[in-house]
Request: fold
Amino acid sequence: MTAIALPADDGTVEAKQTPALRATQQRIRELAREKNAVILAHIYQRGEVQEVADFIGDSLNLSREAARTSADIIVFCGVHFMAETAKLLSPNKLVLLPDMKAGCGLADMITADQARAFRAKYPGLPLVSYVNTYAEVKAESDICCTSTNAAKVVESLPDDEVLFCPDRYLGGYVQKKVPNKKIIAWQGYCPTHFVIQPPMVLASKKQHPDALVLAHPECSPEVLELADYVGSTQGIMDYAGASPAQRFIILTEAGLLLRLKRLHPHKHFYSIAPCPHCPYMKFIELDAVLDCLENERNPIEIPTDIMIRARRSIERMMAV
Ligand code: CIZ
Reply:
């Protein structure tokens, strides 16, 4: 293993900058150039993985950036559904996921069969699916959404009642933003955001009374009640960057905290205790990135019929 972890007081983990780590990073960059590959790192990735990326961001923006490049290969340092989204938007590129164990606890909460049964229970209602779903679920949906545009997507539909999957908390948050429609939400949730509980937030607020609380809408409504701002990963990044405030409590996965600390070293970012880490995101290690690029391992493949229908759901969202 190339990286040696150094835990910080706030619960984030930085890799020790050893010669072996730097050599692996350098080899990844050389190979990316030789093979005309673009490396994407989701904002929840380990710091040393973010450092080798061409683009860092949320899953949809990364997939769109990669689609705009003339790269032959996309290495997606993130989780499986994200690499699938990149493949949907770049069907002619080879998309690689460094470690196939990088699944998603939230995406696992609904299968295509369950999505079909959900629709059958409410005939005629449109199904909106969060991008955090597998391609086979997107294929059963009318339209996709992100945490940034979910309210806008729901608002754009002509129906008074809308099915939403898989995240009940994002569904509930959207319901508050769009009170004129009834949202019937699938009862899934993100296990990493689920561990964030109000007493932990209150304890962090007590420790940092002048800090603003920025929360992701995958947190429970009780947690969102305590937030000064609720937004997607990109929304939190933009808010923290633009705000004149100097101190922030960040209620989402540790990778975002790490990114904010690097981008704004003069500001102060805190978490809750314990700091939430997504185990799936952390499966992506530098050695796996190198191995998958070197050996073109773990290509993402999506059956054509699913590809066509899933892509349609994403394109409808992009048109909103
Ligand atoms: O789609 C993404 O990247 C995730 C996980 C959430 C977000 O808010 O960006």
